[in-house]
Amino acid sequence: MCGSRSTITENPPSSSHCLSMATLSFNSTRIKSPSRQSHKPFSKSHFSTKPNNVPFLFPSKTHPQLHHFKPNSISESSVSVPEEAFDDAEEDDPTSELSYLDSETDPSSVTEWELDFCSRPILDIRGKKIWELVVCDSSLSLQYTKYFPNNVINSVTLKDAMETISEDLGVPLPEKVRFFRSQMQTIITKSCKELGIKPVPSKRCLSLLLWLEERYETIYMRHPGFQKGSKPFLALDNPFPMELPENLFGEKWAFVQLPFSAIREEISSLDERFVFGAGLDLDLLGIEVDDNTLIPGLAVASSRAKPLAAWMNGLEVCSVEADTSRGCLILSVGISTRYVYATYKKTPTTTSEAEAWEAAKKASGGLHFLAIQEDLDSDDCVGFWLLLDLPPPPV
Fold it and tell me: Can you give the residue range of the structural domain that contains 294?
């Protein structure tokens, strides 16, 4: 996958990748808090695809016909949500703040926080935008929100607020704090280091991102100072992709798909087999996937697979994107780092394959995976990351 040297060839589809797509649904879930707020319901899609297993390799003498990822049909219906979920949300005071820890949660088990400190599309009595600190853990067992005027936004304010969370909720300061806004990196990093916390710039703040989306509709839009049409003050970066570092090079790669049951097995074995990677607790995120649903992914093979997986493990891998305009794959890591992960020769066929893979990823709600193997035909992975490509939050 070393840049422009790659061309496209194909191996016969593996039987493990040849199931048709089944139903995938995103069901609403309630955030565990006294106000019982609910996530925004997602649409439920029914679709099917033809089997596909398209490796992109170094030059080869053969170039068999490709099997396309090609959705045959998509129909949508709304996901039903209990009426009381909306009734309870309507009763919430949008100007109130939240300080909550699930009574069934062991405070010492909350070792990582997800944090956002940013302005909101809300004006105070001075006509200035209100800032808000939002903190949670990945399971939303811990939830904290607090509004601030725009003239006290600094590392001291944030440091004091994090200490207040610890004291008020009776939880120790976390070992790590994940955050996704590059513009706030200086303030957050300084505050964390003064408290002995490791700051982790990462877009894998999925619980936080989903919660912010839900708060926008149930809290911010109902706030008396809400400014309709206001754009996010600190928009997420989407920089031009850089050249891939040599230590991240692979030798072969392939568009693949796995039934979700196989993905669950792979995730559960990460610790057992000492495999590098990271999973997602979809139950906690309120995402339901049928075991037979095929999830699109990218398989990477390398003779130095273990060192490659070890390097990848420290990067906070966020997503993989097929960029058909450039004829390449883009790997997003951390907050705003994007690499040209591989290139391929642009032809109508390769463009169609890449577009179909992206369509399959979109149809699965952004769910996809990255697998690192010693050989593309191997049944074992030495690195496996389950990824969720979410749109940027509305704030």
Answer: 237-388
Tokens of 363: 């149809």
Question: What would the two tokens of residue 318 be?
Answer: 């966020």
- Residue of 361, 24, 25, 32 lying closest to 214 (CA atoms): 32
Nearest Cα to Cα of residue 8 among 374, 322, 266, 238: 322
| Strands (E) located in 137-232 | 142-148, 176-179, 198-201
- For residues 180-190, b (16+ Cβ closer than 10 Å) or e, as one string? bbbebeebbbb
Residue 75, pLDDT above cutoff 60: no
Q: Please, are residues 137 and 113 in contact by the beta-carbon 8 Å criterion?
A: yes
pLDDT above 90: residue 1: no
In a domain, 169, yes or no: yes
Total domains, the chain = 2
**Computed from CA positions of residues 183, 184, 190, 196, in that sequence, does the dihedral angle turn out positive or negative?**
negative
269 and 215 belong to one structural domain: no
Q: Are 122 and 185 in contact (CB under 8 A)?
A: no
Which tens digit of pLDDT belongs to each residue from 8-52? 233 323 333 332 222 232 222 333 333 333 332 222 222 222 333
**Single-letter residue type at 6:** S
Query: Could you tell me whether strands 367-373 and 294-301 are parallel, antiparallel, or unpaired per DSSP bridges?
Result: parallel
Three-state DSSP class for residue 87: helix
Distance of alpha carbon 180 from the chain centroid: 11
Find residue 122's DSSP bridge partners.
226
